[in-house]
Write a structure and sequence with these properties.
The chain is of the alpha/beta class. The chain has a single domain, classed as 3-Layer(aba) Sandwich (Rossmann fold), CATH 3.40.50.720. It is about 40% helix and about 15% strand. The protein has a 9-stranded mixed sheet, with helices on both faces. Helix 5 packs parallel to helix 7.
Length: about 325
């Protein structure tokens, strides 16, 4: 990594396990009974959710609407490999929200293009006048081992996940910067933060999203733009046939088990927190994930040798005991 002291060894750790996901996070004590009855956590907010025609995005959209938000439900539609398009998926979610008395509009734009990202944002402004929340959730899967990788699959996965996050975020970030801030949630994955067999294209895209989130959190802080990264582990249409879910039936959360964590991120419950990664899954619960580094050994500016790393290994590398605390794969 450019700019890092070569003596520093870093790893990703999962820490501070908090609450196991339920149907809804508890209200803070400051919210009295009357407020609970008459106010939602997202009253008067406008949320944009990409990939919300099913799975995780649908669960977020419906929960946000129940908490008072107006929602732009974006989904290109079609199968999980990204082929085809069908706006009716987004419209079905909108119809369900409106039937419950909520407010929502459907958008079928391709968010992997600048024009598509602008179109989603414009629908929020045109219909609701604001863009307080953005959840970048849209994604596809084209899994293959690296030795069998195809350039077309690599390009498509990177385009939808990483470029799609860029394209959807750019107009919203600019608006938030000029209008008092907001909250952005970008969806990464342990496939990118830790690694997972057969997902080189997906892991690279999700790792890139984490890097983008880190920079956005820094650049957005002074404008009151809070940026979260979510690493969900959920059983959805997109993940149903992955080996780790087939081999562990009943271990994974469904979309409704992930959604309360996202509501926490975008609501006042999370205060002024920004730049954090929240992992949410059945086996590991809800926990912050963070890049950590050892104290390290400082070599002389000249004259040190590769063998010195062996001598100072305890200062440079994490112990096996430390590693036990680090992020763990699906069990």
């Amino acid at each position: 990594m450019a700019g890092l002291d070569p003596a520093i060894h870093v790893f990703l750790t999962a820490e501070r396990k908090t609450w196991m996901p339920g149907t809804r996070p508890g209200m803070t004590t400051a919210r009295n009974d009357v407020m609970e009855e008459n106010m939602g956590l997202l009253d008067k907010k406008v949320a944009i959710i990409t990939g919300a025609g099913g799975g995780l995005g649908e669960a977020y959209a419906k929960l946000f609407a129940r908490e008072g938000a107006a929602v732009v439900v974006n989904d290109l539609g079609g199968p999980r490999d990204g082929s085809g398009a069908d706006k009716s998926m987004a419209q079905k979610v909108v119809d369900a929200i409106n039937a419950e008395g909520g407010r929502a509009v459907a958008n079928g734009s391709d968010i992997s293009t600048i024009a598509g990202g602008e179109a989603v944002f414009n629908d929020a402004i045109k219909n609701f006048g604001r863009a307080d929340i953005l959840v970048n959730n849209a994604g596809i899967l084209l899994d293959e081992t690296f030795a069998k990788a195809k350039e077309a699959n690599w390009d498509k996965v990177i385009r939808v996940h990483l470029k799609g996050t860029f394209c959807a975020t750019l107009p919203v970030f600019k608006w938030m910067r000029e209008n008092g801030g907001g909250v952005i949630v970008n969806t990464s994955s342990t496939s990118g933060l830790i690694g997972n067999f057969g997902q080189t294209n997906y892991g690279a895209a999700k790792g890139g999203i984490w890097g983008l989130s880190n920079v956005l959190a820094i650049e957005g802080r002074k404008y009151n733009i809070r940026v979260w990264t979510l690493a969900p582990g959920a059983l959805t249409r997109m993940t149903a046939d992955l080996p780790r879910y087939k081999e562990n039936p009943g271990a994974a959360l469904g979309p409704d088990g992930i959604a309360p964590a996202v509501l926490y991120m975008v609501s006042e419950l999370s205060g002024d927190q920004t730049g954090k990664v929240l992992g949410v899954s059945g086996p590991r619960g809800v926990r912050e994930m963070r890049m950590m580094e050892m104290e390290g050994w400082t070599p002389p500016f000249t004259g040190w040798k590769a063998e010195d790393i062996v001598t100072h290994a305890r200062e440079i590398f994490f112990s096996e005991e430390d590693i036990k605390k680090s992020a763990r794969r699906f069990k």
